[in-house]
Amino acid sequence: MIDGLAVTTMERTAIDVACSGGFAQALAVIDSALRHGADRDALATLLEDRRRGVAQARRALGLADAGAENAGESWGRAQIIEAGLPVPRLQHEFFDSNGDFIARTDYDWVGKLAAEFDGMTKYERHLRPGETPFDAMRREKEREDALRRLGVMVIRWVWTDLRHRRVVPMVREWLEREGIAA
């Protein structure tokens, strides 16, 4: 009960939503549930029943990662998975030769290729005190330049790229260019 209303658990709600749409929706909702503390075993138990959509929800649970920080990151990963491309590490941290932190990237393939999903939040709502959107953009460029100095290629996509299915061709091209099995 929340505020006098009967509600389902986070796990039950996530599974209901995961079973009601496509793979990308299932992956996004399960990623989010795990990020918010859902119990993976409880999710799996709820998927033991036969019901419409359970196969895709089981597949999504097997590939779900609490490291996906938002639905856009999950949707990009779902497209990559559905295309049969190598699954990236999420939120990988890079350090320079002195051990100083350089960056944490949304996606990473073996330390050679990194990718960023650019929702507008980082340029609008997550500004540092006194920072303008231009300052945030400049900071992102400096971060990307530091990654390139480490030999890491960085690619980026936005919501429009996800909607128009441009992510997979972009990732495939750069996996091939970087000699990463695609």
Description:
The protein has 182 residues and is α+β, with helices and mostly antiparallel strands. 48% of the residues lie in helices and 14% in strands. It is built from 9 helices and 4 strands. It has helices spanning 10-18, 23-35, 40-46, 54-63, 71-82, 121-124, 133-149, 159-163, 167-177; strands spanning 89-95, 101-109, 113-117, 153-157. Strands 1-2-3-4 form a 4-stranded mixed β-sheet. Strand 2 and strand 3 form a beta hairpin. Helix 1 packs across helix 3 (40-46), helix 2 crosses helix 4 (54-63) and helix 2 (23-35) packs across helix 5. The longest helix has 17 residues, at 133-149. The chain is globular. The N and C termini lie far apart (48 Å). The model has no long low-confidence stretch (mean pLDDT 92).
What is the helix content?
40-55%
Q: What coarse outline follows from CA principal-axis ratios?
A: globular
Strands of the widest sheet, in order across it, are 1-2-3-4
> What share of residues are in beta strands?
5-15%
Summed up, the helix count is 9
Distance between the termini: 48 Å
Rounded average pLDDT: 92
Task: Count all strands and give the number.
Answer: 4
Could you spell the SSE succession in H and E letters? HHHHHEEEHHEHH
Poorly predicted regions are none
Largest sheet: 4 strands, mixed
Say what oligomer this is. Answer: single chain
- Rg from Cα: 18 Å
Helix/sheet category: alpha+beta
